[in-house]
Amino acid sequence: MSQAIQPNPAVKTRALRFPISVKLEPRLETPRWLSWATTIGSVILALLITAVILVWVGADPVRSFRAIYLAAFGDSYVFSDTLVKATPLILTSLACLIAFRMRLWNIGAEGQFYLGAWGATLIVEAVLGKDASPWIFIPLMLISGFLFGALWGFIPGILKARFNVNEIITTLMLNYIALYWVAFWVFGSWSERGFQMTPMFPREAWLPRLMDYSSLFKPFSGMTVHLGFLFAVLAAAGVWYLLSRTRFGYEIRLIGDNPNAAKYAGVNIGAMIVFVFMLSGGLAGIAGMSEVTGVVHRLQDRISPGYGFTAIIIAWLSKLNPWAVIPVSIIFGGLLIGSREIQPSGLARLLQGILLFTLISSEVLNRYRVQVERAK
Amino acid sequence: MNFWINVFSAGVSNGTALLFATMGELLAERAGVLNLGVEGMMLIGAVTAYSTAYATGDPWIGLIAGMIAGGLLSLLHAFVVITLRADQVVSGLSLTFLGIGLSLVLGEGLASVKGVPTIPAFSIPLLEQIPFFGPIFFDNKSALVYFGYLLIPAMWFYIYRTRAGLHLRAIGEYPAAADSLGIDVYAWRYFYVFVGGIMAGLAGGAITLSITPGWFSEFTTSGFGWIAIALVIFAQWDPVRAAIGAYLFGSLRRFTLDVQGVNVVLGIANPFFYDRNLQFFLEMLPYALTVIVLIIGSRAAIRKRLGAPAALGIPYVRGERGLL
Hints:
The complex is a heterodimer. Chain A is built from 13 helices and 2 strands; from the N terminus they run βαααααααααααααβ. By secondary structure, chain A is mostly helical. Chain A has a two-stranded antiparallel sheet. Chain B is mainly α. Chain B has 13 helices and 4 strands. Chain B has a two-stranded antiparallel sheet. A two-stranded antiparallel sheet of chain B has the order 3-4. In chain B, α1 packs across α6 and α1 packs antiparallel against α11.
């Protein structure tokens, strides 16, 4: 930037220069309001960009967004459906959040979700009799879902800790493997008359829903919200407590912020990696368990429309704050419900992608003071 | 023998898409920028190439459009991570999401179109008659496959034997030193990320216009983008190893299909022939093998104390004292 450019059109400058230059100056601290303002700003920007793309492909953005809103938050019944969709999203987002906080890139919540769903189904298919009490069924399915999800987290965890294998790739590959693993069972020995699904679970293995209590309280009739939502809220509280009130959580945050400092402080990073990965997988496993026992009531091929991937965005949008995960998941649950109603069908995915980009771009405003100046 | 010729012959064709994507990612990573958006860029390239070829009737114009689309998408990543210095992992993942979403919206209704022209295929006279290798490498192959053969030595020569290649390695290993020699680290990083995007777009176009013609929404690329990223690590950032890996993975794809069609393998009854349900384990194989390949690559990296370019994933800030 030292040579001056002569404003003489006859002289060709060798390098291409922009008329303005942007200077980034690191901020010492980020004001709280700014961080939320940039988040809200990037959501608005993402909606605007999506609208422009919709116009470009010949759809009406206002009608599309309105249709999504009405289908998701229009009345208490659709809102109840939205909460049902939010349930696996909260749990998988917490799974991502706890790993991301340590800068472990667990992209495998999707696969861990499938293993959790499989683990819960295993209890119905192979462990308990069809007439066991719900008091035995539900805790056992919960534990099994957690354990199999944790197992699917253990694999990338131990590989990362032992051989420094890139966890992004391993978790992604394990997603595919989980998908085929579930397909093997639902097409094969658990298949109901050759259909790619297991038989319906016995009523005792269903998570109770609000509508089951409509005889006690009339407005509950038709409400599909199930016990899994409570699991999700409790999990959020648990993750919050763990991260901000315990030594274990402190070590997670320390490793995430400064792994060298953690090492010198004597934290066993390898063990922490394996442990956090298992916890993360277990949370996603509970999401899978809650989905098969609370909503689908059977295991089938492709039960997740990508919860584990949407969870990555939710975790970021929540700024890795466990409490913020709940409202953000509800909004995304609404987006999932709403986008079923409208064309083009890829819209929800597109909006998610754009949103992630506006978010990480806005992050620069939080970290740096941006100064635009004219090039000299 | 015919069985293996078929597997490897299809493997070379399948592997060509993987080869392009892997080489592109290899260049970007050599320059110090990790781009996890390969899958998204491939899908954008695939949908753009296919729809453009459909609209114009010319597969080559389609392919070029796909390459440009992949390149443009990669510039977004370049801007976010090089200029805005955001986290490369998060930005790359976002790029995948964006690519998948955008390609689904753009590809709406594209699955049912018919009569899309494909890249021509031809045989090389004389070479095709070499026993075993002839049918595998030179018999009725797409023009892109031959381009792939030329790309491998070209990449090797560029990276290890040219001045530009030396600069490329320098900005990935020690950007501050490269900068002090007058190499414009920012501009070159933009350039290599862009080339990586073009190559990923080419890979996507190769799939829809040549290898498995057609648009199958997000299943078109079936995780090739992620396998490409794993192959770069397995190859220890070396183009020749990357090429071998790409062709072997392409062959594995075909092997999992073909092995279900024979009733005896290596002298024993083939379980995959008699129990259709075991096919799911075959379909896991490429993904499981990717993990295994990654373990091997990572262990080698630890043992030999080499591996990733030292500045991989770290934004370069001129005049700032950092790790490098």
